[in-house]
Every structure is written in structure tokens, then in C-alpha cells.
Specification:
This protein has 198 residues and is mainly beta. The chain is 11% helix and 38% strand. It is globular, with a radius of gyration of 16 Å.
Length: 198
């Protein structure tokens, strides 16, 4: 709990850290001011019935200043499941180091899955040899794909989750994602615990 209090001191003040227009759009989506009934509803990337803290959300102050990404605090070895089905396009699992220094960034183990609409989801900081899928595999939503860890640029063990696509010019574009939670479909908020139905 101490780490959550510490994180809240550096994460919560981050409301005005980014001028990215997506940041404002996500804020309106979370408050329900903008209604989105068309975007894909993702499954939380962990076991049914389990709940985890979301310690960093979209455009949080600490390391997500310009990222529409989510950090779920979980112990090393926690099972990670595909939030959406697709084809595995990248697997890195040979990294064996992690810490709060950018020099560790290349060691971050990850899995990237391409979805039917060509968007991609990335799952970062997996443990060494922590992938149970290979590039080229087709996976279903809710399928076990790997195990969380503390590799790469990270202070503590967690799962970093991000969805993106490419625009007509081939430019990388982050996507906010809705999730099915035990309390309905939601855009997730920092410093809250979310339970996966089941």
C-alpha cells in the first residue's frame, strides 16, 4: 500500500502534463461526456475473478506523460491473458534486467498482438522466458499468453498495456480502450482496482 500512496503523489498531479488532444478526449470519455458505443470492448488482461490496481493510466504524470497506456501492478509470474484476439507479431523474452533507469529499456520483454482491424496491443515488462506464445500464433481473447515481470524501464513488477494503430500516412496513433469490468464497460482510471468478471 505504501507504494500506491507514493505513486498517487506523482501520478495524480499529472492532469496538465500533456497538450496531446487525445488526453482531453480520454478525459471526456471516462466522464461519459463523450459516449462511445462503437469502440472494441477489451477483456482485462488477467485471470477471471481477479482484481489488480491500475497504478498509472492514460497520460499520467510519472512515465505516461505522452502515453495512452495502462500499468497494472502485479507480482512477478502473474498470468497474462490476451485482452483481444489476433495474431502475435512480436515476442521478446530474453531480457533479464529491469530498473528505474532508461538504460534498462532494451531489456523490456514484451508481446505484441495484431487485431483484425490492424490495431495492435502491446504487453510489456514480462518476466524472462515469460511468453507462452510465438510470433505467428493466432490467439483468442482470454487466452494465456505469458507471465508478468520486472524487465526493462520499470520501478516495480507490473504489466504495461498499450493499444495503437497507424493512420493513412503510416503515423503511429495511440487508442483509448474500453474494458469489460465486474461493474460494467469502462474507460479505466488511475489508482483504482478493477476486477475481471468470472
Amino acid at each position: 500500500m505504501r507504494i500506491l500512496v507514493w505513486l498517487s503523489l506523482i501520478v495524480l498531479p499529472g492532469c496538465a502534463v500533456s497538450n496531446n488532444p487525445l488526453r482531453h478526449e480520454i478525459k471526456l470519455l471516462r466522464k461519459g461526456i463523450i459516449k462511445d458505443d462503437t469502440s472494441y470492448v477489451y477483456s482485462l488482461p488477467y485471470e477471471n475473478g481477479k482484481s489488480y490496481w491500475l497504478v498509472q493510466g492514460y497520460f499520467s504524470h510519472y512515465t505516461h506523460k505522452e502515453r495512452a497506456a495502462l500499468d497494472f501492478k502485479m507480482k512477478r509470474g502473474t498470468k497474462i491473458y490476451a485482452a483481444r484476439g489476433g495474431v502475435v507479431v512480436r515476442v521478446k523474452e530474453d531480457g533479464d534486467r529491469g530498473g528505474l533507469n532508461k538504460k534498462y529499456r532494451p531489456y523490456g520483454n514484451n508481446i505484441v498482438i495484431r487485431h483484425a482491424d490492424s490495431s495492435r496491443a502491446g504487453y510489456w515488462h514480462l518476466q524472462k522466458d515469460g511468453a507462452v506464445v510465438n510470433a505467428g500464433d493466432t490467439v483468442q481473447q482470454g487466452q494465456l499468453i505469458g507471465y508478468s515481470g520486472k524487465t526493462g524501464y520499470t520501478l516495480f513488477p507490473h504489466l504495461h498495456f498499450l493499444v495503437w494503430t497507424f493512420d493513412e500516412n503510416g503515423k503511429w496513433k495511440q487508442l483509448p480502450t474500453r474494458f469489460q469490468t465486474s461493474k460494467g464497460v469502462k474507460y479505466l482510471r488511475s489508482i483504482r482496482r478493477y476486477k475481471k468478471p468470472g
